[in-house]
Amino acid sequence: MLAGDVRLADAITGRSATLLELADVSDFNAWRGGTLVASPVTAVQSLDPRGRLVSAGLGAIVRAGTGPVLRVMSRTGPWVAATGAHAFLTPHGYRPLADLAPGCEVALQWTGSDIFWDRIAVLEEVGEKEVFGLTVDRYDNLVAGGFVVRLIRPRRPF
User: Which of 36, 42, 131, 150 is the most buried (most CB within 10 A)?
Assistant: First the structure.
């Protein structure tokens, strides 16, 4: 699961929002107190089976309760917060965050339409946070906070 403060960028418009903000929009049709006509993020970057970044529709955002969260930051600066079970793309396939350590390589989105490998600089516990599961049309992965991660759909809250 990803933490609520993780920011997703819309693959088409470039607008961004945190998972907490997006969940509030889908739950209450409210955006920081104002009514929205549409969600600020409707499409995300995802890897197709050939390893190319493509646009994919953002499906459901599901509140999964609270759980222990780790923050991971790469050497070039992007960061994301997720549970230890959340899988990150490495040169050896998707691996749970809890199995990674500083120095491990992970896939990041290059500022255009490609991915590149960078090393983890920081991996630290940040305590209990509200976490979310997501769905994406067609694929089981997305770019979250710059990292390529596999989606985890919640079965039950923590």
Answer: 131
